[in-house]
Amino acid sequence: MVRVLIFLTIDFFLWFFNLHVEGTQMRIIIVGAGKIGKAIINTLVKENHDIIVVDILADVVEDIVNTYDVKGVVGNGASYEILMEAEANKAELLIACTPSDELNILSCLVSKKCGVIHTIARVRNPEYSKQMDFFRNELGVSMTVNPELATAEEIHEILKFPGALKVEHFANHRVEIVGLSIPKNSPLIGKRIMDIRKEYNLKMLICIVERDKQAYIPDGSFVLQEDDKIYVNAQKTEINQFFKKIGQLKTKAKQVMIIGGSKISYYLAQKLIDNNVAVKIIELDKERCQILSELLPEADIIHGEGSDQTLLQAEGIEYVDALVTLTGFDEENIIISLYAKLKNVPKVITKINRYDLTDILRETELDTIVTPKEVTTNIILRYVRSLQNTIDSEVKTLYQLVNNQVEAIEFYIPDSTKYTGIKLKDLAIKPNILVASIIRNNKVIIPSGNDYLQAKDSVIVITTNKQIRDLEDILE
Amino acid sequence: MNYRIVFQTLGKILLVEATLIVLPLMISLIYHETEMIVPFITTSGILCICGFLLVKLIKPNNANLFPKEAFAIVSLSWILVSLFGCLPYIFSGVVNNFFDALFESVSGFSTTGATVLSDVENLSKGLLFWRSFSQWLGGMGILVFVLAILPNVDPRSMYILKAESPGPKVGKLVSKVKVTAIILYLIYIVLTLTLTILLKIAGLPWFDSVVHALSVAGTGGFSIKNSSIMAYQNIPAEIIIAIFMLFFAINFNLYYFILIGQGKQILKNEEFRFFVIIVVISTLIVAINIMNLYGNFGNSLHHAIFQVASIISTTGLTTTDFNFWPSLSKWILIILMITGGCAGSTCGGIKLSRVIILGKTIKNEIKYSLHPNQVITTKFEQKRVEEDVLRGVVSFIIAYFFIVLLGTLIISIENVDLLSSLTSVLTCISNVGPGFNLVGPTENFAFFSNFSKLILSIIMLAGRLEIFPILVLFTPRLWKKA
Fold first, then answer.
1. Which of A326, B197, B338, B475 is most buried, judged by most C-beta within 10 A?
2. H/E element, B23
């Protein structure tokens, strides 16, 4: 009785100090506070979740507890005692991202028995990755993430659209948002956005413009300039048409050179070979070369130093369609990529482990940068958000674009509301918000002002306003 | 150092203090003390202006808050709050000397409870309330209070919470710093209210109940009677106060465990068990030792338990003049004065958890000297004590005694006797209040020179903030930008 009273008082105070716990907040346990763990914490803390970090290293936990609004527990994240100390019985989600696959899986299993509803494990061993379905269906691990595989997939997507800097998928790969930069003499320079769609007669939307590191949601009268980066929303075929019409169509890469024979290289090479692309891998370690040549009989495996310019020339760097640097060293990747740019390789993709470096690299010519940490984090965050949203709001998925300046959110409209059935141009939508696609009966509509929303639609909204969590929020 | 963020935070703290001074002002209004209205309003006005200037004029260009800034914020804000807090004493004309006012104010906020006023019964009710209220605030911490009420608390404020909260290892109760601060203050407020009501039931007037509850809660020990609690001759009230002094000397995390239904954790808590044992043993020894002074065992037990509770919780209220006690009892009190209560409570001193950790380190050292190759881990509360915590504990204790020695050396310039000079410094650094001989329970600190009062004021602040935040102020490194 007394305890109930005290809790009511605490609730009152929390409400009074405007801290009232919203329904969307979850209690999340993060096991392993490495690079990815930290990146996840960094984002989730901002979304006001109740986070508990478990790590075996006391000073790491100490550091995180001091920097973020999280609680820390020092110990083994697969131990029942430690998980109970982290109050796993009250948690909705556990994310295990320690360096050890086995620990991550065990942690998920134990926490599941403690009462955690959803569990995510980072599993990088390909032998385990193959049994993802088994993990999910039989063991109850909600999701497994393989950082290397995910990175390889991301790079593969970019290679499919060589003209693009970045490709994002929505609605089960039906809608794509493709980033591209506007080179000198592009026909787009000086044109207003509303004229572009008319002129090319394509179902596409320019939904974000990045200028001087700042992201804008353009309206129809926005005029494009040289060196802008634009993000175009359209279906695949339309995007290729668009690239063709503005003269930026680069044929799909046929010949790809990969520097470094890491796990990512293996996954990527496998995917490329499956798509009939010729792959050449340059790797320094002889034994690794042998393993790769066994695994990838169709690929050319070259034993040699990837930063050796003579070797690169000898292997025909000037003639490949794309070069991907995947060595373990950021510096080496950067230098080889710069060299490739010098040799006019049409598409250069640089893998960087340290996300901080991307700021420095903005000043260079390297425009397509992939960070495994970011890729993994995004996949996990997407899951967390979809989870959070299934709890009470209509958000299905949420993506962060353009250095987290922009959010693309997928909503589902279950029933008719006051905004359904009204033409978009007649809706009072807040500034910096764009309705980018409507998915109706499995068909994608790139909307113009005359389209309208209706019940059972999925809608993708793009915004720089990060407070949107409900479709009604987009209205004035 | 990021000067801008430091000054901006200081400005906010001054504004909070300006608001809080309204409380004693209201007390003065209720009791029709017209002479106190001007002093309180002027103080509040000055605080408002200074705070407003700092907040408005200095716009931080980034919000980087690192341990350096946190230390500076904590120590500077305590100094500023004490400096401004002494204005009501000066404006009301109660003290003419700035150093007297400063001593009184610091003694309040640091929850020491030593006074330079020989006759407190003549003070206005508003000022008496301010004295006790400053102890209540200082007990749980001014910055913890600010963290609890400010919107948008930077998660890095954990550094501030750490620098201000007592104990070798400060953790969060819940994941958010702000909610942690709110919960701490809620527990504090509920306990204080309970004490007030119990004192009222025991027969004290309302005002006296409130003021005593505030000073007991902060383990400060300001009384509104010259002869402290013994003026009331009210045995039930004395027992209630004794029990609550012990309550406030317990780690507040334990109350949180009760709240969330993990009451069993308390029995597992090593520090709590040690605390209970020490209180029981020292009470019994003192009770037997002073039996012939008070006639029967009941009486002596009553005085023993009150004095032991008062000293170990570093409150400093008294029911008897322990200056006349035998040496053994006096020394027990001095030792309790040094150790203080549990970490994470409102009391001062070294804190029992440090004593335990040090004891274990010594024990391990003995093992090492016998078996040099043995590998030993020091465990506390069922967990391994990390190297840096261990280092912190040892250096804290060394610094504590170093300051006691240095302080006594400086005070001894006045040529007071050894016990008086030593216990005056001990009582100040442990935030107790009374010492022995010239600074005993019925005496006060008025006779010291201004210089000694200043030194004792610094020592009181150093004791409350656990020494290092004050020491870093004197390092030039803190003030460098990079």
1. A326
2. helix B22-30
Task: Tell me the β-bridge partners of A176.
Answer: A169, A234
- Cα-flanking dihedrals φ and ψ of residue A59, to 5°? -70, -30
**B389: contact with A, CB 8 A cutoff:** no
Task: Output the average pLDDT for chain A.
Answer: 82
In terms of domains, do A271 and A332 share one?
yes
C-alpha distances (whole Å) from A135 to each of A36, A88, A388, B30 are: 21, 20, 22, 70
pLDDT tens-digit map of A40-94: 888 888 777 889 999 999 889 988 988 888 999 999 989 998 998 888 888 889 9
Q: By CA distance, what is B147's nearest residue in A?
A: A17
Structure tokens that stand for B461 in this block: 């602040």
Within this chain, do residues A37 and A97 fall inside the same structural domain, yes or no? Answer: yes
Contact A244, A473 (CB under 8 A): no
d(CA B317, CA B248): 14
Give the rounded distance of the alpha carbon of B118 from its chain centre. 22
State the residue for tokens 């209509």: A394
The Cα–Cα gap between A65 and A311 comes to 48
Residue type, A104: N
Chain A contact set for B147 (CB, 8 A): none
| Residues spanned by the domain of A31 | 25-145
CB contact under 8 A, B186 and A67: no
Note whether B383 contacts A: Cβ–Cβ < 8 A: yes
pLDDT digit string, tens, across residues B383-440: 888 888 899 999 999 999 999 999 999 999 988 899 999 999 999 999 998 999 889 8
Q: Is residue A84 part of a domain?
A: yes
Q: B146 pLDDT exceeds 70?
A: yes
Q: Where are the beta strands (DSSP E) in A15-96?
A: 27-31, 50-55, 70-74, 93-96
A55 with A102, same domain: the answer is: yes
CB B122 within 8 A of CB B74: no
| Half-sphere exposure of residue A352: CA atoms within 13 angstroms, side-chain side | 22
Output DSSP code: residue B155: G
Q: Hey, are the CB atoms on A17 and B178 less than 8 Å from each other?
A: yes
- Count Cβ atoms below 10 Å from residue A313 Cβ, excluding itself: 12
Residues B268 and B382: beta-carbon distance below 8 Å: yes
Residue A34 counted as domain residue: yes
Residues A238 and A263 in one domain: no
Residue A135 is inside which H or E element, if any?
none
The three-state secondary structure class of B90 is helix
Q: Give the C-alpha separation, A431 to A377, whole Å.
A: 29
pTM here is 0.79
3-state helix, strand, coil in chain A (%, to 5): 40, 25, 35
Chain A residues near residue B193 by CB distance under 8 angstroms = none
Residue A103: pLDDT band by 50, 70, 90 thresholds?
Answer: very high
Q: How far apart are the C-alpha atoms of B279 and B101, rounded to whole Å?
A: 35
Q: How far apart are CA B355 and CA B274, in angstroms?
A: 10
Residues A458, A460: Cα–Cα separation, whole Å = 7
* Residues B244/B248/B253/B255 CA torsion (nearest 10 deg): 10
Measure the CA–CA gap between B261 and B257, rounded to whole angstroms. 6
Q: What is the pLDDT of residues B265-276, one digit of tens each?
A: 888 899 999 999
Domain end among A197, A227, A245: A245
